[in-house]
Amino acid sequence: MSTPPARHLPVHPALLLALAQLLWAGNFVLGRAVSPHIPPVALAFWRWSVALLLLLPFTWRHLREGWPTIRRALPVLVPLGILGVGNFNTMVYVGLGQTTATNAALLNSACPAFILMIGPLLGVLAIVSRGDPGTLLGLAFNHGDAWVLGAVLSWACYTVLLARRPARLHPLALLTVLVAIGLAWIAPWYAAEAWRGARVSWDGITLATLGYVGVMASVVAYAAWNQGVAELGADRSAAFLHLLPVFAALLAALLLGEAFRPYHAVGIGLVLLGVRVAGLHPR
Q1: What backbone phi and psi angles, to 5 degrees, belong to 4?
Q2: 8 Å CB contact between 110 and 123
Q3: Where are the alpha helices (DSSP H) in the chain?
Q4: Residue 1 to residues 4, 62, 65, 66, 213: CA-CA distances in angstroms?
């Protein structure tokens, strides 16, 4: 007996994609705010632990029914879990310890260019160099920006590969599998971080942070993004990534007191222009 196709929420995909960007913008800002308080890999590990514990009671039946599909699709699901869950957020949290939330969110605008395979390099370089050409000549890049840019590349690969997901697997079951794979990928890095002496302070700040990143920025945002991409496709969904720096810049200015610098405006303008130009050409 074949498994019926998974049902989606009756919400316009554009709203789902925009919601995901708003929740992820909050994740960028919060990740920056707690970077002195919670080690980055620990934050990623416990974030996905919370998400997995929240998902399992609702998805175990779908996982059991869909296990044959999951087993056959492991060659696709494993890289999806590593790229979209394991790599992306861990690298972002590492980068946020050395760069601003606004800068990290603006670098996220390079993602549609990676997805479209045409990179607006001037925009990315303007952000990374902070508007100083001497930085590029001296290769003196901010390490935090480099980590975030690597995370963006990982997310672009995840979004493109998402088209090969098993279509008949329930969306929340798919998310549960990806979270489990990503968590297994993060675990040894978390152990190495703890071995080097980094410790989590289990207090109200930590618990509130994990509540947001584990529920809103993980379960809700990923479910919304995966459904939106499934309905609109990777290329059209990529345009919504430009909402993240807008949301993040506003939140960072309000909550962290970060300033929106001229090189931020130049960088995002060039990135948007590059993606616009890319969209004028046939695939």
Answers
A1: -65, 150
A2: yes
A3: 13-33, 40-65, 67-72, 74-80, 88-96, 101-107, 111-116, 121-128, 133-137, 143-161, 171-195, 204-211, 221-232, 234-238, 243-255, 262-279
A4: 9, 15, 11, 12, 38
Token duo for residue 52? 């997995």
Q: What letter would DSSP give residue 3? A: P
3-state DSSP assignment of residue 161: helix
Rounded to 10 degrees, the C-alpha dihedral 50/55/60/63 comes to: -100
Rounded CA gap, 93 and 105, in Å?
12
Q: Which amino acid is at 273?
A: L
Q: Is 73 helix (H, G, I), strand (E, B) or coil?
A: coil
What CA–CA distance (Å, rounded) separates 182 from 83?
8
Please give the chain's pLDDT, 283 residues, in tens: 344 444 555 678 888 988 998 999 999 899 888 988 899 999 999 999 999 999 999 999 999 999 999 999 999 999 999 999 999 889 989 988 888 887 787 777 666 656 554 334 455 555 555 555 554 444 445 678 788 888 888 888 888 888 888 888 888 899 999 999 999 999 999 999 999 998 888 889 899 999 999 999 988 998 898 888 888 887 777 777 777 877 887 788 788 887 767 766 776 666 556 445 543 443 3
CA separation, residue 234 to residues 50, 65, 139 (Å): 28, 28, 33
Written as six digits, the tokens of 39 are 């080690």
92/144 Cα distance (integer angstroms): 8
Dist. CA 93–CA 35, nearest whole Å: 7
pTM score: 0.75
